[in-house]
Amino acid sequence: MAKRAAKETSTPLIVALVFFVLTTITFGVMWYMQFSDQVTKDEAVKKANADASAKAGEAADASMKARVYRIFMGIPEAGETGDLETVKKETKGQEKIAAEIKKINENLAKAVGVRSPSDLPSELRIWELDDKGLPRDPKATGLIPVVGDAVNKRDAAIAAATTDRNNYAEEIKKYKSIVAEYENLKKSFKEISDALPKQFADQLNTRIKDFDERTKEYVKKEAASQTELSTLNDEKQRIERERNRLLNENKGLVDQIREISRKIAEKQDAFVYDEPQGKILRRLPDNIVEIDLGSNALVRPGLTFTVLPSDFPEKGRQSRIFRIRVPNERGEYKPVDRFIEKATIEVIEVLGPKLSRARITQEFDSIRDGAAPGDLLYNSVWRKGTADHIALLGIFDVNGDGIDDIESVVRDLTRMGIPVDAYFDMRQRKWVGEITEQTRFIVEGYYPVQSANDPNRDDKTKLLAAMGNAVAYGREKGVQPIKFSDIFPRMGYRMKIDLTPDKINQAAAPYLNRVPTNDMPPPAP
Fold first, then answer.
1. Which of 83, 349, 354, 424 would bridge with 393, disulfide CB 3.0–4.6 Å?
2. What order do you get walking across the sheet with 439-444 strand by strand?
3. Is 389 helix (H, G, I), strand (E, B) or coil?
4. What is the DSSP code string of 175-206?
5. E strands present in 20-97
6. Topology (CATH level 3) of domain 274-385
7. Residue 108: alpha-carbon gap to chain centroid
8. What band does 328 get if pLDDT is binned at 50, 70 and 90?
């Protein structure tokens, strides 16, 4: 009884133990299966994320490629997120962009038929890489405008070719017409050439017959001519002797006439027939006057006039001869009779066709004998619209400072409209320029003054002789010499007239012994 009770007691324990073991195994299997599913799910999520990242990268690459192609084609999208701005901001993908550009350029080079992208024409170098292999900035125009331009050029070339073909057809047509005309002319030429020998033979025979007759006539006349020629030679010799005698007589008469004309010209006043060129209209303050000469008379600023009273033509030159006292080099005064004008004026402004304004540059007696309305204007070498040509010889010391001012005189006269054809270069001792038939006066300036103890006496003699020869040359040309003291006052040009011999020799010093000085450059007309 006791043993059966013990066996019954252990059975529940075994059952419980078996249940525990089974339960543990069951829960272990269930936990393992649940962990395995979680791992599988995590791996699936990772794979899905990786696939999404890959697809996103592929999409970004595709988008960037599309931007590159749009830019290359010349149709980029605009705006802040446009193609050009996006590509410029791209930093990590520059190598991919460069690779794509390189591929496009290589394919374009292959299509065009050149060795490398660098050999492409400039218009097809749309997007290039720099020395580091990175993209440069693309051109503003892409491939599409280039293709469009190429198509337009092709169409223009086709049109030009069509025009050329049409022109060529026209030329062929003309050429055929010319060939036909040539054949006709060739046929006509053959007909003429066949008939020409006979005509030539007939004409030649006629000419030979005519020549024979003329030869007989010539022989007959030659005999008569020889007799007549002998008579004519005798008469010719007689006429030659008479001609030579008359030429010698004529030369003597010409020399006599020339000498007489020279003496008459020296005694005659060259300005005896001077006429007034205008008159003063009114006098204004500050020594300004208005005159009745203007642009119609070709007046220009700088032109000068001598002012004489309105009755000067009736009273004549003697009415303006005054005796004045002039100092010599020792300060002694001596009386000199001199022609004195009322005033000299210089044109400062041309106001109209018959009106100009001038400034009074000098007035002999402004209170009792000043320039006034109605006074006449004289200029001995200027007339309305024209002027006499002159030449200059000698020393022209305008202001009495002992320096030759010939360059300034030439410049002033030219500015006034008075042509200076030539001047005598006292360094080279010859005329510079040319004295022509238009030259009216040789205006003589000061001559060097000689003294008994002058160390430059010999050279002054040579210089004076050269100046005398220059005047003689002018006389041979028919040009009258005249002193500057006679002509300058009559044209209103101011120059110091009473220059002492010392000042004259001082101005002449640079021209002696052929010694140039720095303060005296060669003058130019």
1. 424
2. 430-433, 420-425, 389-393, 439-444, 480-483
3. strand
4. HHHHHHHHHHHHHHHHHHHHHHHHHHHHHHHH
5. none
6. Thrombin, subunit H (2.40.10)
7. 51
8. low
Within 442-500, where are the H helices?
457-476, 484-491
CA 339 to chain centre: 50
Q: Do the beta carbons of residue 374 and residue 279 sit within 8 Å? A: yes
pTM, 2 dp? 0.42
Mean pLDDT of the chain: 81
Show the tokens assigned to 252: 């003597």
Q: Which two tokens stand for residue 74?
A: 């010349």
Over the stretch 32-88, which tens digit does the pLDDT of each residue have? 777 776 777 777 777 777 766 667 667 777 888 787 888 878 778 777 667 777 777
Q: What's the CA gap between 348 and 302, in Å, rounded? A: 6
The domain limits of the chain are 274-385, 388-525
Segments in 268-396 forming alpha helices (H):
312-315
Say what the pLDDT of residue 467 is.
Answer: 92
The residue that leads in pLDDT, 273 or 37, is: 37
Q: Give Cα separations from 463 to 399, 407, 409, 501 (angstroms).
A: 23, 19, 21, 16
CA–CA separation, 443 and 418 (whole Å): 13
Helical (H) or strand (E) element with 17: helix 2-73
Asked whether 399 and 496 are in contact (CB, 8 A), the reply is: yes
Token pair of 388, please? 């006499």
Residue 294 contacts residue 310 (beta carbons within 8 Å): no
Residue with tokens 């699936």: 44
CA quadruple 282, 286, 287, 291: dihedral sign? negative
| The two structure tokens encoding residue 287 | 């020594």
491 within 8 A of 304, measured Cβ to Cβ = yes
What tokens appear for 275 in the block? Answer: 């006429």
- Sequence-distant (6+) residues with CB within 8 A of 372 are 280, 283
Radius of gyration of the chain (CA): 59
CA dist 455 and 363 (Å) reads 41
Rounded Cα–Cα distance for residues 405 and 201 (Å): 86
Question: Phi and psi (nearest 5°) for 197?
Answer: -55, -40
Q: Are strands 420-425 and 430-433 parallel, antiparallel or unpaired?
A: antiparallel
525 pLDDT more than 60:
no
Helices 2-73 and 143-267 sit at what angle, rounded to 10 degrees?
30
Helix or strand (DSSP H, E) at 341: none
Q: At 368, is the secondary structure helix, strand, or coil?
A: coil
